Amino acid sequence: MSRIAFIGLGNMGSPMAQNLLKAGHELRVFDLVPAAVQTLTQAGAQAAASALEAVKDVDVVISMLPASKHVEGLYLGDSGLLQHIASGTLVLECSTIAPESARKVAQAARDKGVRMIDAPVSGGTGGAVAGTLTFIVGGEPADLEAARGYLEKMGKNIFHAGGAGAGQVAKICNNMLLGILMAGTSEALALGAANGLDPKVLSDIIAKSSGRNWATELYNPWPGVMDHAPASKQYAGGFGVDLMLKDLGLAAESALHARASVPLGELARNLYSLHSAQGHGGLDFSSILKLYQAKQV
Ligand code: NAD
């Protein structure tokens, strides 16, 4: 069994770390939020007082942070972890970040003899808890093979998208589509409800018709349609509006960079931006439904 440092114990990192513990690995964990660390120590992990302390004498480092600036801040610079991680250590960077950031950090790792892959995930918090995530990996094939045993304890599907940063490109394309389809699903359900349909009945119809998608099958945005979905828990937990907004921003940047057109992605980004500006940035992204729910005046 391996010694693993796990940094970033939020909605995704916490259940992922718990699955590694269940598999028998020895975990040293760190998060800026003490309560997040406590949840893991209660499950058998060892608490570290800092990220630096977490990575001392471990075989593997895993990070699951919000965005590029957090990842660059953690690994790069004079006080960054790459100054302290032993050469030969395997680093699995699982956050969703800009491909250029992933490449920059991977290059800095390579310069230090540290083996790093970008391994962003898909599958939501439900997938993280169940250990059925999809990992979308960028990096050297040999490093992916070294990481595979760990990834398999947290996920079910593992894809190699290409070299460093390629995992992030694929993940961004997926999430742009997810943002568009969650907004589209909300729009359709709100249209039906405004015309007198029961959203549950309409959801059942769509789930067996040509408009079906991940939201109608697993993550319905209408409260009460699916008991386990964030919509039925006041949109708590899940995947935050501001994280979706970040991913749609990454899609827009990637499009600019490659001179590609993403009109629906840009429209979705504006919808989530408006929704966030109305004070909903911390809710699950399926709360985009609120934008469509007409107020009776
Ligand atoms: P989250 O905000 O719930 O958790 C992030 C955690 O990182 C927080 O607990 C925060 O305190 C911690 N953190 C931030 N900076 C830190 C630092 N320097 N050192 C230690 N801890 C630090 O976010 P999440 O929902 O767990 O998402 C994490 C990543 O996974 C994001 O990049 C997100 O886009 C991606 N993602 C999320 C989902 C989802 O459904 N939530 C699905 C797929 C991918």
From TrEMBL:
- Any GO BP annotation: L-valine catabolic process
EC number of the protein = 1.1.1.31
> What is this protein called in UniProt?
3-hydroxyisobutyrate dehydrogenase
Catalysed reactions, as listed in the record = 3-hydroxy-2-methylpropanoate + NAD(+) = 2-methyl-3-oxopropanoate + NADH + H(+)
Q: In which pathway does it act?
A: Amino-acid degradation; L-valine degradation
Q: Name one Pfam family in it.
A: NAD_binding_2
Q: What is the lineage of its organism?
A: Bacteria, Pseudomonadati, Pseudomonadota, Betaproteobacteria, Burkholderiales
Residues covered by the 6-phosphogluconate dehydrogenase NADP-binding domain = 3-162
Q: Which family does it belong to?
A: Belongs to the HIBADH-related family.
Q: Which domain of life is it from?
A: Bacteria
Q: Name one GO molecular function term.
A: NADP binding
What does the UniProt keyword field contain? Branched-chain amino acid catabolism, NAD, Oxidoreductase
Which residues does the UniProt record annotate as the domain 3-hydroxyisobutyrate dehydrogenase-like NAD-binding?
A: 165-292
Q: Which residues form the active site?
A: K171
Give the first-level EC class, as a single word.
Answer: oxidoreductase
Q: Which Gene3D superfamilies is this protein grouped with?
A: N-(1-d-carboxylethyl)-l-norvaline Dehydrogenase, domain 2 (1.10.1040.10), NAD(P)-binding Rossmann-like Domain (3.40.50.720)
**UniProt xrefs under InterPro entries:** 3-OH-isobutyrate_DH-rel_CS (IPR002204), 6-PGluconate_DH-like_C_sf (IPR008927), 6PGD_dom2 (IPR013328), 6PGDH_NADP-bd (IPR006115), HIBADH (IPR011548), HIBADH-like_NADP-bd (IPR029154), HIBADH-related (IPR015815), NAD(P)-bd_dom_sf (IPR036291)
